[in-house]
Amino acid sequence: MKNINFSICVLIFIAGCSTKKDIVKIEDHPGVTDSVQYELIVDEPGYDSWVATNSKPVWYHEKEYYRTWNVLYVTEFNYRVLNTNAGHPFTEMINYDRQIDYGLDVEYKLYWYFKFIEYKYNTKLYITSR
Q1: How far, in Å, CA of 55 to CA of 21, rounded?
Q2: What CA–CA distance (Å, rounded) separates 34 from 37?
Q3: How far is CA 91 from the centre of its chain?
Q4: What percent of the chain has pLDDT over 70?
Q5: pLDDT by residue (tens digit) across 73-113?
Q6: pLDDT for residue 128
Q7: How far, rounded to the nearest angstrom, does the alpha carbon of residue 6 sit from its chain's CA centroid?
Q8: For the chain, where are the alpha helices, taking DSSP H only?
Q9: Closest to 25 in 3D by CA, of 38, 47, 46, 40
Q10: High-pLDDT (> 90) share of the chain, %
Q11: Rounded to the nearest 5 degrees, what angle is found at the Cα of 30, between the Cα atoms of 25 and 34?
């Protein structure tokens, strides 16, 4: 009986380790009305505490400011995922559709995620020429 329990624990551990996790995921949550609400989930150690101490208030810029930068950042981030062997955090594409209005909170959180990546990995994401 102990061997069976141990085997089950090992299998659960292996399955948990082998599943691929997105670092950044934008999830949609259908509301009661016709609108859809989006949530940004960041699975990057240190992100929450860094943002709490380094970001500006959400109202500091307009949504279009965050949106404009996010389009540039996502393009560069996804380029690095596809065309370089940069490694972590450039392992999974960010599924960002510029035609979708994600709302101020998601745009703000995504913008500061990219600022965090620039800080943590000492890199610039927006490069004007290649």
Answers
A1: 25
A2: 10
A3: 11
A4: 73
A5: 999 999 999 988 888 888 889 999 999 999 999 999 999 99
A6: 59
A7: 35
A8: 2-18, 47-54, 63-83, 104-120
A9: 40
A10: 54
A11: 135
The per-residue pLDDT for 24 is 73
Let me know if 73 is exposed, middle or buried by CB neighbors in 10 A (0-12, 13-18, 19+).
buried
Are 25 and 41 a contacting pair, CB within 8 Å?
yes
Token couple for 78: 């996804």
**What's the rounded Cα separation, in Å, for the pair 101 and 22?**
21
SS3 state of residue 39: strand
pTM comes to 0.74
User: Which tokens go with 75?
Assistant: 């393009």
Cα separation of 41 and 37, whole Å? 13
The three-class DSSP label of residue 41 is strand
